[in-house]
Amino acid sequence: MTGEPEHPQLAGQPATEPPDEQGTDAATALGVAVVLLALAGICALLGAHLLIGALRLAAGVLAGAAVAAAVFAVPLPSPERPPRLRRPRVLLAGALAVLVAGALTVPAVLWTRVGSLEARASASIDALAEGDRVHSVPGVDAPVLVRRAEGTAELLSGTRVETVEAAPEDVVALSADGSRLVHTTGTTTRVLALSADAPPVEEATVDGAPLALSGDLLVVRYCDGVAAACYVEAHDVTADDPAEAVWALSASGEARGSDPAAVEVAARSSEGPDLLDAVRATGILPAVPLRFDPAQGWVQLDPETGFPVGQVLAAPEADCRIAATDAAPDAADGLAEPEPVVLTVCSGDDGALTATAYRDGEVLWESEPSPAGDWRVRLDRGRVIATGTEDGSDVAGELVASQQRAAWTAPGGDGLEQVAPFTTRIGIDGARMVVTNDQGQLLAYDTADGTNLWTQPSSPTGDGVRGSLEASTAVVLDPLERTRALDPRGAQRLRILDAATGEVTHESVLDREVDAIHPVGAGRALVTTGDSTLLLGP
User: Fold this and answer.
1) For 198, which DSSP code?
2) What is the 3-state secondary structure (H, E, C) of 254-293?
3) What is the pTM of this model?
4) For residues 502 and 474, what is the distance between their CA atoms, to the nearest angstrom?
């Protein structure tokens, strides 16, 4: 024997090769990847079918883990040196798992994420509380007046919020065109000019309680305690001496005021409203001065001269409601900016109503007497809406008197007889009514003749839709149907629309409770949620 190995070719190597552990590990990893991928598919299907967000996210994570397991199923290129490649492979598998899971979950979460409502608000104030009131006028860039229950007033103009200190018994109001703020104690009246770029600037302080603000002329009722006499006076708030009256007329001792426009009041009243009740209720000082005289009745005054304009609007003994309102949208006068319309609604002994519209003291139209009954009336946009019950009936109903029809008719008249049934009424004013129907539509109809003014899509069923209509702005909240697993539960779509055209001026998705909504002018709205009230819109 020579002592040499029987198999020289194997010198220096083990006599037998170890089992192929690498192949076994690869097969195991591949099996794990297949199982994880199957679980990911099951979670994705169940999540989409049952709309469970956790399953949809789990599907993305499991898919990422399946990719990581697949990495371990790939054989190493150098089986002699696996320890040196094991750590890079672990890092690669982890990176791919995170990348795939993130790609399958993060975009989906971001796509269904509800944006911040605060980020889209032009201004924010403390949440409105019980007793707080919101006032505004239609028009571009018109300010919003918020009157707190404790008396303080807040002006929202553009992105600015200005505070005006006032006592609870004071009256704070906007002018009819929104260009000025009027603050009166009843004996003294301040006029402040408003701007979107600067704080309010005081223009004038005069004695008396305001009746109207027409252009630069402030009409007030002033009583001289020493002389025991009362006067109606006009003051130019831009004059060097605003306290000097442009004209003055003697007035009776009875300080009776007109009624609030666009606010529902009883058709019959045993006592007339006080001088400032209407301004207090609406937060708007009208541009048309109306004066009550116990001997003459109600007359409209020319703010330039103080002379009565046209005929007597209502006799002193008549049981009438009277208010100056914006012109009806269908006023066929050919004017680019129709002048305000003064409306009276007088009740007969049986409760029948007769409405009359005046411009510059001249009759525009007069209605036939309504059915006798117990009514409440709203004088708005050159039309009158009455709600109540007819004699001999206990079913409440609505009637409208307008320039189109001499007879009182239901809102929309014959024009709504053939339309789809309504499911929700968002709101109604003298110009239009905004409703939803069972065809999944949001619509506006002319209050007088039922002309369809515009149409927008709405909730398919109409269930849960709510909103409000004020200052030529409609706000609609409708629940969103969940179609994807990651869609927020209980989400609502908030839309703010120009009520005249149906143009959507703001749209948001909310995943929180809305405590209150207040439409304001220029297609905007105050939305109260949580501890904040946000001004939304253009």
Assistant:
1) S
2) CCECCCCCCCCEECCCCCCCECCHHHHHHCEECCCCEEEE
3) 0.82
4) 9
